[in-house]
Design a protein that fits this description.
Blueprint lengths: L9 E4 L9 E10 L2 E9 L7 E9 L6 E7 L12 E4 L5 E8 L6 E8 L11 E4 L5 E11 L2 E10 L10 E7 L6 E7 L10 E10 L2 E9 L9 E9 L2 E4 L15 E9 L2 E9 L5 E7 L1
Antiparallel strand pairs: 1-20, 2-3, 3-4, 4-5, 6-7, 7-8, 8-9, 10-11, 11-12, 12-13, 14-15, 15-16, 16-17, 18-19, 19-20
Length: 291
Amino acid sequence: MFIPKPERSVVAVPPPGDGAGFWAGAPSAVSRDGWIYLAYRLRRPIGAGRGYAIEVARSADGENFETLLTISKEQMNTESLERPTLVVTPEGRWRLYLSCATYGTKHWRVEVLEADDPAAFDPAAARVVLPGDLKTGVKDPVIVHHGDMWHLWASCHPLEDPQEADQMVTDYATSVNGLDWAWQGTALDRRPGAWDSRGVRVSAVTFTGETVIAYYDGRASAEQNYEERTGVAIGPDPSTLTATGTGPAAQSGHAGGGLRYLDIVPVDGGHRLYYELTRADGAHELRTELR
């Protein structure tokens, strides 16, 4: 397992401003042809833009990134953008899944862009792949191609009571093409009375032999929204994950304690971890460490 150790990390992308509400994070990484490609979200405080852009960037060393493409929330006709998901199909085609907030609601949907090159995504060609519904907002998908099938874990939020819409569980879906999804039920749920009793959101999944290891964001209260900590869940298959331990596996030592949206990508000789970390002034920065 790969447990983040912030003291071993470096900043890959700084936040767009200082203080609470300014974030760079929610990373999704792909290693290909000697490069690490990274999609991540930029955010300003509520009232000043929220999740205003997604950037796609690349790096030769995994730490210093050059921006290839910026997609704004206006281009996606959304009130806010959340975690993107960057993948490459077995045929070599690139996909960028975007979590989009519906204006004036708590509803979220997921749209997808496709391109032959990660610098060529066109927001005008987006299509909705996870619409959610009147009762459920869907966002932050983790998408893995394994065993001739596409697997997806998404954060699902109840919408019937707006005061409860921050709650979240992780539902699991499968697909033969990565575009048309069949829901298979809840893979990871909250634990009453525990540190993750208010919400659980899978952030990365690894298939290891007969075991599935999932890293997830958890929190105990609505007040901890935006400051989730990282936990570990294990299961015999991707549809059944059980949280381990009695406390978070990793968290920030600053402000709200947030360490979230962990992603793991293999590189020559090891792995790179990317995650969003709360710093001393309350801003969130995107950090990386090599294992």
